[in-house]
Amino acid sequence: MLIEAEAYYTVDSPAFICYGSIKPFPPLSIKASGKFYEGQGNMLIKLLSTKIADARGYEVDQGASVRYLNEIF
To answer: For 42-51, what is each residue's pLDDT tens digit?
Structure first.
C-alpha cells in the first residue's frame, strides 16, 4: 500500500511535525499527523474527515521525544 508522507524537524527549538496518508480503497483515505513541540507529543488519525484517534499524555510525550532524538542522530 502506497504511503505518502512528509516530515519536518527543527533543532533550534526541539520539534517535529509529520503528515501521512494512505488510500486503502479509493476514495477511502486515512490521514495521520504526529508532532512534538514544547516537550509535548500528539498523534492524530482521521478516517475520511472523522477523527478516530487523538493521542496525548505522558506516554505520547515520551514516545515523541524518543522519536525526535532518534531522527536527529
So the answer is: 999 999 999 9
Grid coordinates belonging to 52: 478516530
CB 37 within 8 A of CB 15: yes
Question: Domain tally for the chain?
Answer: 1
Q: What is the pTM assigned to this prediction?
A: 0.86
Burial class (CB in 10 A: 0-12, 13-18, 19+), 33: middle
What domain range is 21 assigned to? 3-72
Of 6, 64, 67, nearest in space to 31 by CA:
6
Q: How distant is the alpha carbon of residue 62 from its chain centre? A: 14
Q: What is the pLDDT of residues 15-59, one digit of tens each?
A: 999 999 999 988 899 999 999 999 999 999 999 999 999 999 999
**Cα–Cα dist 36/20, whole Å:** 15
